[in-house]
């Protein structure tokens, strides 16, 4: 996988910020379908993803596959539960809506979470 420089990361963050309003406008079902696709792609490309995990972390093959399977399992879990978790319900005067989420990428972060 190619290394990214500061400019690459800043451009990716800018694209993510620009995409957020469109993501927020999607229905829960549409967002769940995207998560379904993430799960499918992770499993379809598990070999290449495990290669990347090994190259970046030095993990043994089994550990690399566990990370890939974890990504697929988490995506599948939330895709199945999204309607119940994100339905248009109000609780205590609050409504649920997608928001931009801060993220930290660290060398010890487990990719499945």
Automatic annotation (TrEMBL):
It holds the Pfam family Aldedh. Residues 2-90 form the Aldehyde dehydrogenase domain. One of its GO terms (molecular function) is oxidoreductase activity. The keyword Transcription does not apply. Residues 88-113 are annotated as: Disordered. Keywords: NAD, Oxidoreductase. The keyword Transcription regulation does not apply. PANTHER family: DELTA-1-PYRROLINE-5-CARBOXYLATE DEHYDROGENASE 1, ISOFORM A-RELATED (PTHR42862), DELTA-1-PYRROLINE-5-CARBOXYLATE DEHYDROGENASE 2, ISOFORM A-RELATED (PTHR42862:SF1). This is Aldehyde dehydrogenase family protein. It comes from Halobaculum litoreum.
């Amino acid at each position: 996988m190619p290394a990214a420089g500061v400019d690459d990361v800043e451009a990716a963050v800018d694209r993510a910020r620009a995409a957020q309003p469109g993501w927020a406008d999607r229905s829960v079902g549409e967002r769940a379908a995207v998560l379904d696709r993430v799960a499918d792609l992770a499993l379809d490309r598990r070999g290449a993803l495990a290669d990347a995990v090994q190259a970046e972390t030095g993990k043994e093959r089994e550990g690399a596959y566990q990370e890939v399977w974890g990504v697929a399992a988490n995506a599948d879990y939330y895709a199945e539960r999204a309607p119940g978790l994100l339905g248009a319900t109000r609780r205590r005067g609050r409504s649920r809506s997608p928001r931009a989420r801060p993220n930290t990428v660290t060398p010890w972060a487990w990719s499945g979470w």
